[in-house]
UniProtKB/TrEMBL annotation, chain A:
Pfam families for this protein: PBP_dimer, Transpeptidase
Organism: Yoonia sediminilitoris
Record's keyword terms, sorted: Carboxypeptidase, Cell inner membrane, Cell membrane, Cell shape, Cell wall biogenesis/degradation, Hydrolase, Membrane, Peptidoglycan synthesis, Protease, Transferase, Transmembrane, Transmembrane helix
Entry annotated with the keyword Zinc: no
GO molecular function (one): peptidoglycan L,D-transpeptidase activity
Lineage: superkingdom: Bacteria
Compositional bias segments (type: Basic and acidic residues): 621-634
Annotated GO CC locations: plasma membrane
Gene3D superfamilies documented for this protein: DD-peptidase/beta-lactamase superfamily, Penicillin-binding protein 2a (Domain 2), Penicillin-binding protein 2a, domain 3
Protein name: Peptidoglycan glycosyltransferase
Automatic annotation (TrEMBL), chain B:
UniProt EC number: 2.4.99.28
Organism: Yoonia sediminilitoris
Protein name: Peptidoglycan glycosyltransferase MrdB
Record's subcellular location: Cell inner membrane; Membrane
Family, as annotated: Belongs to the SEDS family. MrdB/RodA subfamily.
Length: 646, 379
């Protein structure tokens, strides 16, 4: 086929023309691409570089080791224990079922844990380590390590977990830790990223909770490079966190254990204060619970048992309990009256066994009355009518003021859960809180620590400490934080007339050491260690006139929860006080029979720093005491025993 | 001109033809391919396997093939155009019925000795066939409706076959490649205006048909379009590829992170890092300088082809050269537009750089034809 030259020429021209158009379009497109590259790689480069880093780098937190808690002698009471756990990586395991079967033949694993781990493994990426079992014994770990070749993907890892060597004996003070919950997060205002770690352990109660920030430390960080699937490729750098600070408490774990053991079987609280510096030597509440159970996750049964127990083991009665202080309050009434000058030191009041106040009859505990009685005798024999009289003279506001001066009705600042404020009632309180006018009967009731007055064992111990020293003793629980001494609890003089204080102390001495004193049977015989104290028996029920006429029902005949509280406050030695203490036995009956003997035993243990010589006890009691000492001593762990001798 | 009219006296013969190859194009092809080898070495984490070594072998084979094709006179290839195109259509039909399903699409046919992607081959044979068609068609008939409709049908048959695989990228490339030949041959402007108008209408139809039983594209294709329109909507799902690609590309900056230092590809954030998205690795490691250099090399290849075509008085030869240049241009332009977020992700490899045998061989065959046209141009 022959083509005309025109045909050839025309088409060549068209093609050339259109090729130039095409080339132009192509140049334009290349220009757009070049512009796009320039804008992305040059203008927005920083922005994309940042995104790339975010893609690539993950920051993982390194949880710090929690600070330890020691007693005053350096015995650990909250420790970090190495905790072994088995971890499995799915992709390394191959046949998961087979490997797990082999593992269960070696170590005992809860089937529930196993199914949970299986579920988790299916859910997570194959390279994520999943915990199969926790808290393995060293023997189990050795078994696993020995059989590593037959257990692909299984490794034993070590972590730290909290342990309380003293168990129940310090449960109420130290508290316990547990995994952070959504509830915790909603309640506390804390932006610490550590709290976002699943199952991170935080203090849930007691000192663990109140000293959380000190004990926790700060998180370290680990910057890791991850790939698109989240697999860790390498660690870029690592910044170690700061371990939590160690805390030394003022508690003497040996004494604490003794007190807990001595209170066993009762629902009671006891507090021992060192009068040199306000150190709390023992803060005991009975019954107690094992905090280690809470760390591991308490079983429903254990939890219901604790909750349903009428003795309320979870309550830290020593600091949380608020009880009518009964006759232990009489020192407050007396000091208020003497300071106000409304009663002369040797002035006597006639006690016929009752006092009528505007037509209402208030009874003395002694039916026949005490006859003419002064301050000294009234404290020693715990006459009520004397206080009914002087309270009416001084008035409730002055009494409340004195109570607060002596440490009642105020909240002592301690790192413990729900420290009770108690109540030192006055007129203003009743009108604002109750919306009622204060009546003279209220004053009369308050004079003997009944009615509205409420105090915790801690406050009663402070009361005793302040009377013993005349100074503003503030209870101190923390001795050292990271080796730094915390301020002493010894304050200035209370500004109470020293002669008056001396009279009150002398009367308290006779309570224990005079034949007619209410706590004479619980005296300390050792020379120079004599104890001064005051009994208290506070009613939790009303005695009706009919009952009184028929004769007041004996405590033993009442159901437990209607019996009187037994209280005792004391300090010793009388002439050079070293320790002040309080004992409250809930529904224990009489202060002299239920609380005073316990108080004496505790005091002797504190004074002697261990079992006291039997000669310190009245000869009639010695056999029984020896028996009791042997029993309790067996309970005290050898570590605590030997360390306390140092 | 029929081959009888070629002034064969001035056409080089024997091995002398080697001297008359379009050497700048050969050099540029080697340069571009070398970029590819470097990147494949890098994305493998500094290893010649699994990608760089096979790619080099294929390139060597392809270059040899290119030279062999260049040695064969262009008129022979013109006479083969119909055969080639017919064969391609048969192979495409073969894929339809006997093809292997790979990554959700039916693209491969296993001939026993080679796994062939006929859609790639069609890119060249269609251009060849249309060039031959317009070489045969008298110049004054080219805008006649019948003679326009005929090539349109030739284009649409393979386009629909490819679409049904489904391979949207190749279908678009075929469509645009074919249309380019028609445009270059001088078909009247009005036809293109009409088709573009209809195209806009079709796009509207495609979107309107979404969700109805007769929807025109597969769901994943719609999702890709959505993603393209706003990838940030779903950065971990549908938009993951393009978002990660842009991050890698953008983070390269002026000069890049350095060879083998690209964190995004090394850590597998980049999808298809050795195939369709290899440009992002290059851009990350060599920065704007490296990326633009590659773009410029591509442009030079196209430019040398266009110059060669303009200097060639043979209608078939110049149409073929321009068509192949356009196909090549479409490859890299669509790929780059795709990874820079200017176009939807349609699965077009970066020519000579992306790992893959079919595309490279086919392109080098195409350049063989370009070389043949250059060597045997009428003088």
């Amino acid at each position: 086929m022959k083509r005309s030259p025109k045909d050839v020429m025309d088409s060549a021209r068209t093609i050339s023309r259109r090729a130039l158009v095409m080339g132009g379009v192509q140049l334009g497109v290349v220009g757009v691409l070049g512009w796009r590259l320039q804008s992305m790689q040059v203008e927005q480069a920083d922005q994309f570089r940042l995104l790339a880093e975010e893609n690539r780098i993950n920051i993982r937190l390194l949880p710090p080791a929690r600070g330890l808690i020691f007693d005053r002698n350096g015995i650990p009471i909250a420790d970090n224990e190495q905790n072994y756990r088995v971890v499995m990586v799915r992709e390394d395991a191959g046949d998961i079922g087979e490997v797990l079967a082999r593992l269960t033949r070696l170590v005992d694993i809860d089937p529930d844990d196993l199914t949970r781990a299986m579920d988790e493994m299916q859910r997570r990426s194959p390279f994520v380590p999943v915990t199969i079992a926790d808290r393995l014994s060293w023997e189990d770990v050795a078994q696993i390590n020995l059989n590593t070749p037959t257990l692909p993907g299984i490794t034993a890892e070590v972590g730290l977990s909290r342990v309380y060597p003293a168990g129940a004996d310090l449960a109420h003070v130290v508290g316990y830790v547990g995994p952070v919950s959504d509830y915790d997060l909603s309640r506390i205002d804390d932006s610490d990223p550590l709290l976002q770690i699943p199952k991170f352990q935080i203090g849930k109660s007691g000192a663990e909770n109140k000293l959380e920030r000190t004990l926790r430390g700060s998180a370290g960080t680990r910057r890791i490079e991850v790939n698109a699937a989240g697999r860790i490729m390498r660690e870029l750098d690592r910044k170690e966190g700061e371990a939590g600070k160690d805390i030394q408490l003022t508690l003497d774990s040996r004494l604490q254990t003794y007190v807990q053991a001595r209170l066993e079987g009762q629902s009671a609280g006891a507090v021992v204060i060192d009068l040199e510096n306000g150190d709390l030597r023992a803060v005991a509440s009975a019954p107690a619970f094992d905090p280690n159970k809470f760390v591991r996750g308490i079983s429903v049964k254990d939890w219901t048992d604790l909750n349903d127990n009428k003795y309320r083991p979870l309550a830290a009665k020593a600091v949380q309990g608020a009880y009518p202080p009964g006759s232990t309050f009489k020192m407050v009434t007396a000091l208020a009256a003497f300071e106000a000058g409304v009663v002369a030191p040797d002035e006597t009041v006639y006690c016929p066994g009752y006092t009528d106040v505007y037509g209402i009859r208030f009874h003395c505990w002694k039916r026949g009355g005490h006859g003419n009685i002064n301050l000294h005798e009234s404290l020693k024999q715990s006459c009520d009518c004397y206080y009914y009289e002087i309270a009416q003279r001084v008035g409730i506001d002055k009494m409340a003021e004195m109570a607060r001066k002596l440490g009642l009705g105020i909240k002592h600042d301690l790192p413990l859960s729900a420290v009770a404020q108690g109540l030192a009632p006055d007129k203003a309180w009743k009108s604002t809180v109750r919306g009622e006018e204060w009546r003279i009967g209220d004053t009369v009731n308050a004079s003997i620590g009944q009615g509205y007055v409420l105090a915790s064992p801690l406050q009663l111990a402070v009361l005793s400490a302040r009377i013993a020293t005349g100074r503003e003793v503030t209870p101190r629980l923390i001795r050292l934080i990271n080796g730094v001494e915390q301020p002493s609890g010894m304050g200035d003089s209370l500004g109470i007339n020293e002669n008056t204080l001396r009279r009150v102390r002398a009367s308290m001495n006779d309570v224990c050491n005079h034949r007619r004193g209410t706590a004479y049977r619980s005296r300390i015989l050792a020379e120079g260690q004599e104890m001064a104290g005051k009994t208290g028996t506070s009613q939790v029920r009303r005695i009706t006139p009919e009952e009184r006429a028929a004769g007041v029902t004996k405590n033993e005949d009442l159901p437990w929860e209607r019996r009187d509280h037994a209280l005792f406050v004391s300090f010793a030695p009388y002439d050079n006080p070293r320790y002040a203490l309080s004992v409250v036995v809930e529904h224990g009956g009489g202060g002299s029979s239920a609380a005073a003997p316990i108080a004496r035993d505790i005091m002797l243990q504190a004074l002697y720093g261990g079992p006291p010589p039997l000669e310190a006890y009245p000869s009639a009691d010695r056999d029984r005491i020896a028996e009791q000492q042997k029993r309790i001593e067996a309970r005290i762990p050898p570590g605590a025993r030997s360390r306390s001798q140092v | 001109m029929s081959y009888l009219e070629y002034n064969t006296k001035f056409v080089p013969t024997g091995f002398r033809k080697l001297l008359y190859l379009n050497w700048p194009v050969v050099m540029l092809l080697i340069a571009v391919a070398s970029f590819g080898f470097l990147m494949l070495y890098s994305v493998a984490g500094g290893a010649t396997n699994p990608w760089m070594e096979p790619q080099m072998k294929r390139f060597a084979v392809g270059m040899v093939l290119m030279v062999i094709i260049a040695m064969v006179p262009i008129w022979f290839w013109r006479n083969m155009a119909f055969l080639g195109f017919g064969g391609s259509i048969i192979l495409l039909l073969g894929v339809e019925f006997f093809g292997e399903v790979n990554m959700g699409a039916q693209r491969w046919i296993n001939l026993g000795f080679i796994r062939l992607q006929p859609s790639e081959l069609t890119k060249i044979t269609l251009v060849m066939f249309l060039a031959a068609y317009y070489d045969w068609l008298p110049n004054n008939k080219k805008s006649h409706p019948f003679w326009v409709l005929l090539p349109v049908l030739f284009i649409l048959v393979p386009v629909f076959l490819v679409l049904s695989q489904p391979d949207l990228g190749t279908a678009l490339l075929l469509l645009m490649g074919g249309a380019t030949i028609m445009f270059l041959a001088g078909v009247h402007w009005a036809y293109f205006a009409t088709v573009i108008g209809a195209g806009v209408g079709a796009v509207v139809a495609v979107f309107e048909s979404r969700g109805t039983p007769w929807q025109l594209l597969k769901d994943y294709q719609y999702r890709r379009i959505d993603t393209f329109l706003d990838p940030s909507n779903d950065p971990l799902g549908a938009g993951y590829h393009i978002t990660q690609a842009k991050i890698a590309l953008g983070s390269g900056g002026w000069t890049g992170r350095g060879f083998m230092q690209g964190t995004q590809s090394r850590l597998n954030f980049l999808p298809e890092k050795h195939t369709d998205f290899i440009f992002t690795t290059l851009a990350e490691e060599f920065g704007f300088v490296g990326a633009f250099t590659l773009l410029f090399l591509y442009l030079l290849i196209v430019a040398f082809c266009v110059i060669s075509a303009l200097n060639n008085r043979d209608r078939f030869a110049s149409l073929l050269t321009l068509g192949i240049a356009m196909t090549f241009f479409l490859f890299f332009a669509v790929n780059m537009a795709m990874v820079t977020g200017l176009a939807p992700v349609v699965g077009v490899p970066l020519p000579l750089v992306s790992y893959g045998g079919s595309a490279m061989l086919v392109l080098l065959v195409g350049f063989g034809l370009v070389q043949s046209a250059h060597v045997h141009r009428p003088r």
